[in-house]
Amino acid sequence: MPLVMPVFGTRPEAIKMAPVIAAVARSPQLQAHVTVTGQHREMLDQVNDLFGVTPDDDLDVLIERQTLVDVTTRTLDRLTPLLRRVRPDAVLVQGDTTTSTAAALAAFYEKVPVVHIEAGLRTDDVYSPFPEEMNRRLTTRLASLHLAPTPWARNNLLAEGVSPDAVCVTGNTVIDALLWAVDRRTPFSDPQLKDLDDDPRPLVLVTSHRRESWGRPMVGVARALHRLAEAERDVVFVLPAHRNPVVREVLLPPLRDLPNVVVTEPLPYGEFAHLMARAHVVLTDSGGVQEEAPSLGVPVLVMRENTERPEAVDAGTVRLVGTDEQTVVSEVTRLLHDADAHAAMAAAVNPYGDGRAAGRCVAAVEEMLGVGHRLPDFEP
Ligand code: UD1
Ligand code: UDP
After folding, report:
1. Is the pLDDT score of 235 beyond 90?
2. Which of 44, 188, 300, 344 has its CA 20 to 30 A from that of 178?
3. pLDDT over threshold 90, residue 341
4. For ligand 1, is residue 294 a contact (CB within 6 Å)?
5. Is 33 part of the annotated catalytic residue set?
6. What burial letters (b/e) apply to 169-206, b meaning 16+ CB within 10 Å?
7. Average pLDDT for residues 207-213, to the nearest whole number?
8. Is residue 48 exposed (0-12), middle (13-18) or buried (19+ Cβ within 10 Å)?
């Protein structure tokens, strides 16, 4: 029976890979050898625990304040002997992290076919997001099978000369994960959040971590949050802080001692999904959150200059606001006080998936390995 090796290392990859691992486990045609790089540690293990994923191998690459070179070289060094030992028939990578591109390169060097999940996302600037835009372009060149989440992503691949036979439109597996998580209605375990469901105050949910925002842009975001929290005393701002010390050093000090700002550790995925559904506005630079919140009908303000996920922007649920302090303050203030502006963005839309993406991914892999047939493409 063909053996596939999913390789992943960060929180968003773990969330988006979990439904695929579950679908492989259900397939009578495939077996899996689950490998994590450990690019993230606590944030990765938290997700694997929730989804009941026990890695067969853990490359444990994380070092405090790691560079892109650290993650790349340690992944190549440690994955190569494992590929030689396990000899999988395909390696599955997800998205655009350094784990995914380094794993794809290691597999290519061993002549193991690469399957790219969430293929074809693009901006027109290789430095934004950095390094993710280049990571996904490189992974496209290394991959044999491209699982595009949307028709837009498929068209990007075809425009770059990828053969249509090698592309399948699957929907994004994040929606599979989200629907599963929302259904569980996980209560908040952090005492700071436990009364939120009975709290009448509007909630603004904030996340920020992007590398291209480190330094000045993130200082602007921190100042904007401070001003908003002082001006909007009847609004509660919740910031689950990324583990990265570079991010924490900038974002957290200006938010100390503000009674309506709650800073938490990274939340277990079920609790974060609960919080997104409870939010009045989401303010974020996250890729995954941009995909999830629209399907919950929550307006999203994206603190970036561009996005590789234009579908929800076109649908009106997501708006790009950048990281300028004054713009962030004005845009959040508008959604808090202008009910029409909020209503115009609050319609639930589902351009990214229907909850059945993982089945399409696995069927396409089965076809590539000669043990099955792909399913019809996802149509939003
Ligand atoms: C990485 C990905 C980014 C993705 C993000 C999701 C790259 C280059 N970046 O960025 O695409 O959007 O994950 O969150 O692949 N740390 C811990 N424990 C953890 C996680 C992180 O201590 O569980 C700390 C470490 O000090 C680490 C730092 O955070 O050095 C940065 O982690 P890293 O994976 O290099 O970058 P992210 O900004 O998390
Ligand atoms: N998330 C989570 N707990 C948190 C913050 C985010 O489970 O405290 C989830 C979120 O729902 C989304 C994913 O983590 O699915 C996004 O991760 P992140 O923003 O770190 O990475 P990106 O998507 O930007 O690559």
Report:
1. yes
2. 344
3. yes
4. no
5. no
6. bbbbbbbbbbbbbbeeebebebeebeebeeeeebbbbb
7. 95
8. buried
Catalytic one among 118, 232, 271, 366?
118
The finding on whether 287 has its CB within 6 A of some atom of ligand 2 is yes
Predicted local confidence at residue 348, as pLDDT: 84
Residue 209 known to be catalytic:
yes
356 is catalytic: no
Distance (angstroms) between ligand 2 centre and the Cα of 278 equals 16
| 133 noted as active-site residue | no
The answer to whether 238 and 265 are in contact (CB under 8 A) is no
Q: How far is the CA of 211 from the centre of ligand 1 (A)?
A: 9
Measured distance CA(314)–CA(303) in Å, rounded? 17
Name which residue sits closest to atom 30 of ligand 1, judged by CA. Answer: 65
Q: Average pLDDT, whole number, for the chain?
A: 97
Q: pLDDT tens across 91-144, in order?
A: 999 999 999 999 999 999 999 999 999 999 999 999 999 999 999 999 999 999
Cβ of residue 97 lying under 6 Å from some atom of ligand 1 = yes
Strands of the chain, DSSP E = 3-8, 31-32, 35-36, 57-58, 90-94, 114-117, 145-148, 167-169, 203-207, 236-240, 261-264, 281-284, 300-302, 318-320
Q: Model-level pTM greater than 0.85?
A: yes
Q: Which ligand is nearest to the CA of 136?
A: 1
In order of their start, the domains of the chain are 3-172+353-368 (3.40.50.2000), 190-346 (3.40.50.2000)
